[in-house]
Structures are given as C-alpha cells and as structure tokens.
Amino acid sequence: MQLNKNADLKVFEIWVSKNEKESIDKNGKLDRLFAMCNEYGYKPVVFVSGDNDFVANTTEIIRRKSKDSPAA
User: Fold this and answer.
1) Where are the beta strands (DSSP E) in 1-72?
2) Cβ pair 43, 4 in contact under 8 A
3) Which end of the chain is more exposed for a tag (fewer CB within 10 A), N or C?
4) What 3-state class would DSSP assign to 10?
C-alpha cells in the first residue's frame, strides 16, 4: 500500500494492489483510514491495480504522458 497526501487538492491517495485491497477490506482498515481523512477534511481516493506489474505500468503511463505534453 502506498499513501500520498495532496494538500493543494485536499485529497488523500491510497494505492493498493488487488490482493492488498481484499486483505485490507477484511480488516476494516480502509474504513478507519476514510474516517481519518474525513476528520481532517481530505477526500480519500483509492486506486486499485490490476493483475499486471504496478510499477512498470505506472512508469509507462508517466512516460506516455510526458511525451504527449508540450515542452515548456
């Protein structure tokens, strides 16, 4: 699980694999994390990866986005 707080957008990103999500749901950890986010005024957003390599796919998305973006 990877957690990222975006103070500018008031969003708390929760990145989990499919297997992690099932385990976390059984323990009620997401419910507690959501309650904490709401308490501090952050919107919790959960991203669940598929069956492929999470880091490799994310890296590829970033690489494609950077190629599509106009140079400054």
Assistant:
1) 2-6, 11-16, 43-48
2) no
3) C
4) coil
